Amino acid sequence: MAKKSKKDKKEKVKAEPEPVSPFVAKAKKKLLKKLGTEPSDEAVEKLAKKLEKKANADGEKEEVQEEKEEEPKEKKKKDKKRKAKDIEEEKEEEPEETKKSSKKDKKKKKKAKKEEAEDEAEGDMEEAADAGEEKKEAAAPASGVANPDGLTKCFLGNLSFDIDDDQAKNFFEDCGKIIDVYWLCDKESGKFYGSGFLTFETPEAAAAAVAKAGQDLLGRPLKIEFAKPKAGGAGTPKGGGKKYPVKPMSEKPANCVTMFMGNLSYDIDDDKANEFFSECGAVKKIRWLTDRESGDFKGCGFVEFFDTETVDKAAKLNGEMLLGRQVRLDYATERKQ
User: Fold this and answer.
1) Sheet of strand 192-200, all strands in order from the earlier edge strand to the far edge
2) pTM above 0.70, yes or no
3) C-beta separation of 193 from 185 below 8 A
4) Span 204-232, pLDDT tens digits
């Protein structure tokens, strides 16, 4: 086989293409994609130069960045220490007035909070007081009945003969507290008249009770009104203060232990009557007479003693003065059954 000559080797070397720059290849690829056809050599060369120039610029930036990253760590530590020291010095150089002002502000805030808490507490107390007043108003019966004289005693009429203290208190329980119950009965036979008196704790309660007039109580329409004393001064019948000739007493019945009392003051009560007869002897029972319809006190009554001898002593007091009135006494006769 014939050996190749030097001339053939040289021609082969010349026939081999020159290496293509990566920037040229990149430029050609971009232009081909953009234009869709084979770009001219001139356009490729121009774009390749731009790409190369940009690549060189980016390389310089990377070198600068690497230099920055290689900056000694000690320098950074020193900068941090210096900054911390500057901040500390600024705090130490803060004016005293600023510190004082800060303290004052704190005190003011504390005081304001305290005052706010006190105001809230007062508000709660006022609300509680208002709630208490509202409760009281709600509890008080809204009677709508005027009671200008502030009376607490009421007369009850047209009552069932089955009425008793408990039934009366239950019926009026929504009005207020009853402090006294008094039923009117015949003084001799003890027969119930179908009427009586109730004394309430307050005038408002009495007014609420009067407002129940006409309501059904044990099958009967209730009759109720304020029990007013008769005219004639401060609860005293006319003619008080004067002493007249004593009217002779009737004949004393056998074994009489009860006496009639007339011309009495409207201020009379059991205690004053007991005191009047205290020198005669012990009083067993006292019964006051009242109007059957209105319940007003008639200014008279009966006093019963334990024995007839005491009655004889009491008879001597006929015509004597009691609470500004000349008392009229007489023997009481028993009613026939």
Assistant:
1) 178-185, 192-200, 153-157, 223-226
2) no
3) yes
4) 999 999 999 999 999 999 999 998 765 44
